[in-house]
Amino acid sequence: MAVGDREWLLGLGMAVEDRGRLWGPGMIAGDRERERGGPGTGPGVSPGGSGRAQPPPGAARPRDIPPLYESWSGSNLNINDVLGNYSLTLIDALDTLAVMGNSSEFQKAVKLVIDTVSFDKDSTVQVFEATIRVLGSLLSAHIIITDSKQPFGDMTIKDYDNELLHLAHDLAVRLLPAFENTKTGIPYPRVNLKKGVPPDSHNETCTAGAGSLLVEFGILSRLLGDSTFEWVARRAVKALWSLRSNNTGLLGNVVNIQTGHWVGKQSGLGAGSDSFYEYLLKSYILFGEKEDLEMFNAAYQNIQNHLRRGREACNEGEGDPPLYVNVNMYTGQLMNTWIDSLQAFFPGLQVLIGDVEDAICLHAFYYAIWKRYGALPERYNWQLQAPDVPFYPLRPELVESTYLLYQATKNPFYLHVGMDILQSLEKYTKAKCGYATLHHVVEKTKEDRMESFFLSETCKYLYLLFDEENPVHKSGNKFMFTTEGHIVSVDERFRNSLWEDILPGEEESSQKSKPTELKAANFSSNCNRVPDERRYLLPLKSNYMRQIDRMVGLI
Ligand code: DMJ
């Protein structure tokens, strides 16, 4: 963390502590930056956001709708064009049925997909959403069906002839035009499944949308023995990586795919960026490619250096609790005073690399917000202690981190968190035929919309949190979850890339004999170092818990 930033944060904390609240209303960050002669004058300094319309993956908003902060007035803006007219929810939920051990429903759903789903449609879809929700689920279900060990019970399909793999292949081929005619190799954000890239297509895409395709495309390539898919996805990751700032090493959130210029200079862990970091690590976990880990380690270090504010250690010392903020990718200066709900995935990622102590702290912050509203607002302004964007589309990120933290610590606190989340979902989102997006987390108004990730992720992680005996935990197999929560076995067959000679950067990447260490920068702890005696205590000292509760206006 830069010394100046630390001073800024501590200074701000002290200024508002006088009124008994940390980060309370009052002087906003931009004012303070200006007062200190810092930039702080760019877009997004005022509460409400960077103001550049970024279409983050998963953030439910069409690209051509104006930025939320400008036009949020209670109208229905959280509509997205992810549906694709291809039975999205049915497909996205397939492996949830397997994880729940419901073989009859799994078999029924798979047959329905085989019999009815076709991608030969005049339908324009987001490459990212189609990849993580549809391609990922088809591949996951295919792997479950063909797994000789059948860890989830009998999930075989009579006369199965790799139909799901064929469907996945067909879809991926239809997505490939997104990678053509792009000068940087970074893909277009949308394609028409029948006609390719629409003529009026945007040349701008977000980092997560373009750079989080490698897990699914890599699995497909390795199952088919056809390098094309992994090649294009890997080229996109490398192109984005090469555009990072020389100064901070950070990436922005929106880029022009022809010029390579950053249109959105915000660097953060939430919308527009989240799964890019997640997939650097997960690609390494699955494929064992050294270059993915090297990029992840460097990215993690840069995140710690420039995005993390607050005291150094989570569970000791003075100062504000750690928080990851949105900064300008070139200067590291704060861009706004909100965090978004998508960022709640990050503690889960930290668990995967063993930075459990830091994960505990960030998770506690998000849980405090949940406790206040019974949901997570899409954007929460930590300065104003209020939602900036008040909808909650049943997102999974907090549950996902809760589940992974429970696996790492076995602290029953996380079961309590899960129960709390479950009860809020039942109380505020349950509808006649499913669960509904909350239009407004304060007013608890609902929308007629249930995102497909509610079944593929939110329900799956909640179920697994409480199902200690689940084969995911007990079968002795190793599993990984894709960014959409699809389960994939960490399998030897995904570690063989027989076509290294044609992958970009093959010289460096082929040195698999020298394993690279997984390094968490600013490593305060790892899972082995969470002592047993802390298992039945609060994961975070109660004074720090109270501090966080105060900071979100809970007490
Ligand atoms: C999911 O579609 C994926 O987790 C994605 O990476 C971003 N978030 C949404 C759910 O919130």
From TrEMBL:
Q: Does the keyword Cytoplasm apply?
A: no
The yes or no answer to whether the keyword Glycoprotein is present is: yes
Q: What is its EC number?
A: 3.2.1.-
Location in the cell reads: Endoplasmic reticulum membrane
Gene3D superfamilies tied to this protein: 1.50.10.10
SUPFAM superfamilies linked to this entry: Seven-hairpin glycosidases
Any Pfam family:
Glyco_hydro_47
Sections of the chain in a coiled coil: none
Q: Name one GO molecular function term.
A: calcium ion binding
InterPro entries (UniProt xref): 6hp_glycosidase-like_sf, EDEM1/2/3, Glyco_hydro_47, Seven-hairpin_glycosidases
Q: Which residues does the entry assign to the active site, renumbered to this chain?
A: E129 (proton donor), D274, E378 (proton donor), E397
UniProt keyword terms in alphabetical order:
Calcium, Endoplasmic reticulum, Glycoprotein, Glycosidase, Hydrolase, Membrane, Metal-binding, Signal-anchor, Transmembrane, Transmembrane helix, Unfolded protein response
According to its UniProt entry, one GO biological process term is: carbohydrate metabolic process
Q: Which residues bind Ca(2+)?
A: T483
Task: Give the main location.
Answer: endoplasmic reticulum
Looking at the UniProt record for this protein, which Gene Ontology cellular component terms does it annotate, in alphabetical order?
endoplasmic reticulum membrane; endoplasmic reticulum quality control compartment
Q: Where is this region: Disordered?
A: 22-67
What cofactors are annotated for this protein? Ca(2+)
Q: Where is the composition biased (Gly residues)?
A: 38-51
Topological category with respect to the lipid bilayer: Single-pass type II membrane protein
Note the superkingdom of the native organism: Eukaryota
Q: Which family does it belong to?
A: Belongs to the glycosyl hydrolase 47 family.
Function text = Extracts misfolded glycoproteins, but not glycoproteins undergoing productive folding, from the calnexin cycle. It is directly involved in endoplasmic reticulum-associated degradation (ERAD) and targets misfolded glycoproteins for degradation in an N-glycan-independent manner, probably by forming a complex with SEL1L. It has low mannosidase activity, catalyzing mannose trimming from Man8GlcNAc2 to Man7GlcNAc2.
Listed name of the protein: alpha-1,2-Mannosidase
Q: Which organism is it from?
A: Zosterops lateralis melanops
